[in-house]
Amino acid sequence: MTTPQLTKNQSLVFDVLEKAEGPLSAYTILDKLRDHGFRAPLQVYRALEKLLEYGVVHRLESINSFVACAHPGDDCHSHGIVAFAICESCGQVMEFHDHEVDHRLMGWVRGQKFKPEKTTIEIRGLCEACAA
Amino acid sequence: MTTPQLTKNQSLVFDVLEKAEGPLSAYTILDKLRDHGFRAPLQVYRALEKLLEYGVVHRLESINSFVACAHPGDDCHSHGIVAFAICESCGQVMEFHDHEVDHRLMGWVRGQKFKPEKTTIEIRGLCEACAA
DNA sequence: TTGCAGATGTTATGTTATTACATCAATTGC
DNA sequence: GCAATTGATGTAATAACATAACATCTGCAA
Questions:
Q1: What is the secondary structure of B68-86 as a DSSP string?
Q2: Domain endpoint, select from B50, B68, B86
Q3: What contacts A8, CB < 8 A, 6 or more positions away?
Q4: What is the pLDDT of residues B83-110, one digit of tens each?
Q5: Phi and psi at residue A103, to the nearest 5°
Q6: B20 in a domain, yes or no?
Q7: Do the Cβ atoms of A17 and A29 come closer than 8 Å?
Q8: Looking at the structure, do residues B17 and B55 belong to the same domain, yes or no?
Q9: Do B94 and A117 touch (CB under 8 A)?
Q10: B12 part of a folded domain
Q11: Is A73's pLDDT higher than 70?
Q12: Could you tell me if residue A59 is inside a domain?
């Protein structure tokens, strides 16, 4: 899937996420966009919905936050399952893909006749700098 | 770690989760326990906090819900990372452990010098019955 | 130029989780 | 016995996250 031209609100939200050092909550994004005319959470959530669909933004379920995909110019749907390591101290996020992990998980669900739609892998802990 | 004797509130919350067919939100648990004197969310959240610590309950991050561990009489901390398959139609949850997945994920984070604390793997989709 | 689809704006509300503070019960050390 | 401590509990208020419902606008195609 190729990413369509973003609308005004989608671009604003995406730019905020790209410039951010780490993941942001929807309400943090809202606050950053008040000067650009954003007034309500729905403006953010609607933009995020599309950006997630296009694969240019990820949602981090365990911290209710959103982050720009780490693979610029390349949508993430082609990478299989995405795993994240999230530093609980500094908020930094590392993104990673492992086909063997995908294979094991998908093999298991197939055995259960379970039909997977969306998979979340999130590892919370401390990054090298913060663990020191 | 062995599970200590549960307190009154912890037992009430755990019993509700054990008898449930699938995962429950904290507020659903609260409603089910109003007859037993529960009045406020904190009574539920505090009990859940301990039950999670003891490993007899899991939190499903992607659906903000809680489920009793599928391994009765046996705390889950000994199983390594737990993965869940969650049916988005009927709510049924399957729990599973795979050492190869653990190994791959932990190998990667070690390479990044990341110190993992808590890992979430959740696969949302449709179970066999619901996919038919 | 009308009708439609998609994007946007706005208000209100629903859902999930925590802070702050008071009280109670069991245990320990004196 | 009786303070002192610790962990559990009760309660009110509030913070944080997310969606419903409805109105409006804009570009485009029939």
A1: E-SSTTS-GGGG-SEEEEE
A2: B68
A3: none
A4: 999 999 999 999 999 999 999 999 999 9
A5: -60, -45
A6: yes
A7: yes
A8: yes
A9: no
A10: yes
A11: no
A12: yes
